[in-house]
Amino acid sequence: MSAKKTQAKTEKQPRAAKRAHPEPAARPEQPVQPEQAAQPEQAAEAEQTPPQAAAAAEEPRGARTLTGRVVSNKMQKTIAVEIERLVRHPTYGKYIRRTTRLLAHDENGASGEGDLVIITPCRPLSRRKSWRLLEVVQKAAAR
After folding, report:
1. Does residue 5 sit in helix, strand or coil?
2. Which of 22, 55, 58, 116 maximizes the CB count within 10 A of its CB?
3. What sign results for the dihedral spanned by CA atoms 62, 76, 123, 101?
4. In this structure, are residues 86 and 98 in contact, taking their beta carbons and an 8 Å threshold?
């Protein structure tokens, strides 16, 4: 290599800094209006909710849920739920049926094989079990 090239390699210029996001404009503080001063009384009334609302508060609104069919309930307090979805083939465009098998916690043993259930994510309860049963939508036909 020539002397100019080696000198150019050793003297690297710092790269241009990434485009910095502009500082958000400071929001002017709004004066407290008399209507807003009366809000603590309304908040105390809102805290006293019926039991149905308390159960709904346990589940955050719009929580992720999956619907699937129970394929096994042979374990204690655990069910295996099979989730079916349709995926479009990238080349041919045909829809292919794909299944995912998840383990879910069933505290009361409310579901049986063939039931249609709704499950929701929770903290990991074991190595493979990090879902819990939310509700049984449809019971399987008795055999």
Report:
1. helix
2. 116
3. negative
4. yes
